[in-house]
Amino acid sequence: MNKLASYYSGEQVLSDNVRVAQLESWFTSIAERIEGLEYNDSRVANRKIQKLQLALEQVLEFHQIDNNLQVVQFVNDTRALLKQMIRYINIETKVLITIGTVGDLSYAWELMSYFNCFVPEIQDKIKRNPHLAIQMRSTFVKLASMLELPCTRIDQAAGNDELLTSSLESVSEYYSTELVTFVRNVLHIIPTSIFAVLKDIVKILADHLRECPTKIVRKELRDQSQIEIRHSLANHTANIAKFANGILAMETTLVGIIQVNPHQLLESGIRKELTRQITHIMHQAIPFDPSKVMEAGEFDRVLQGLAKQLRGIRQSFEYIQDYVNVHGLRIWIEEFSRIVNFNVEMECNAFMQKKLYPWNSRFQSEAIPIPYFQPPSEGATYSFLGKIIRNLLAMTDPRTTTYVPCIGSWFNSTTLSEVAGTRTFNSLSEAIGTPGLGALDRLMCFIVAKDLQTLISRIRHEGDNLSVPLARLQQALSPSSSVPNDTVPQYERLTQGMSKDFMASCCDILVRIGRLQLMREHIANELRSSSKLNSGPLYWALQTANHSLLT
Description:
The chain is mainly alpha-helical. It contains 23 helices and five strands. It has helices at residues 2-8, 21-35, 42-59, 63-66, 69-89, 93-102, 109-113, 119-128, 136-143, 148-158, 162-187, 189-208, 221-225, 227-248, 262-285, 296-324, 328-347, 384-395, 422-461, 463-477, 488-496, 500-534, 536-550; strands spanning 253-255, 258-260, 401-404, 409-412, 418-420.
């Protein structure tokens, strides 16, 4: 009615010929009368609605309305809604009680949520026909009746008691959250099915579909078009769109006291499945065997395989983002960064006195959990980050390799072949990206800090034997502002008072710290070159700020 009133005001149309002040005033009064209806007395409200219906029926006889099909449609829709309101008003209390009794599905809550009854059958039907997800809305609304059992008595006893009122809210929120979790678990079959089809798309994009050249000879046009491959790709894309439309067609539903948005439900499911797949791929892609040192070529092949798998998922995910109505690149960056940071925290537990449990991590989520893998043995690496660092340390063992500073690489002392260097860290950047390199740097910092603590504790343990030689060495090397001369005899006298085991352990720790620092330098160079290439203005802005503040 308000829309019709504004239409006849002539202010929201291109022409002033439709302006009719009397009809504008009449429709405005009808809208005010509808808004002022009170439903405490059903009889009075019923009579008023019937009078409004009669008035709308009579207004259709006016010439200005009868000749405008759009206005007639608006009036007829309003009459239909008023008729429906009359039906709702005339519903008796006993009918509502009967409907509530028939629609009560609270008895099935425990069977479906805890014992998983009927859930596999429901998911199988949704997988075969995604549009059945629309019908699941009524099932979820019926399951919301399970809130009545724990909340009815609290509601009856609450009255004006603030404590019971707050208890009612907390109980309702708890059971509503449980119900929303169940809804996510049931409808998770749709994101799972999407990623099952996505595997075929990854294979097509990575192995079969060739890039179209800029210039094509007319005779080769048919061969370059790859009609069969593109037809298969279109079929898989259509299947993904069907799954996405199945859940997006659901209306926003109030489950208990929580409103469930189907778009958020789909995005949450896609994030969950994407997180699971990325975590499993990175966990299984990089092996580590303490008894066998991985060769440089094999390590590069492993990193290239990991980069190819992740690149395929990312490209196919960006390809389908428009068909599932999500922002693919943003979701990929957020979830990949969350996975990497979670793995850093789990790896750092080996160096922390107070352990951080997976469920207490700030990067863990109940709705979108990151899979946790139990380490195979005590002291073993947890994630791909630890495996990468252990492989790098094993490959750059100082007993078999030598670091050449001018080239920036480690070379095998026997074969003089390159073991690790700029090329290795470039492959790492392509495989795990900027977030992964940053995580490696953080993990190396923890290892260096732990090694320094171990070294200091061992030196303190040998303090009685080293206190006098260290004092003499400090006096000989003073002042620290200048470079001392003839220091070799001083160091020789210091080492004479040390045991061979102490010297060997300290040497191993210092060499490992040095190698880790060199690796961190390579990571910093790789991050610097990547930032210059991909985000030049941001890099130079940060460089200017650092230069102005630190110099």
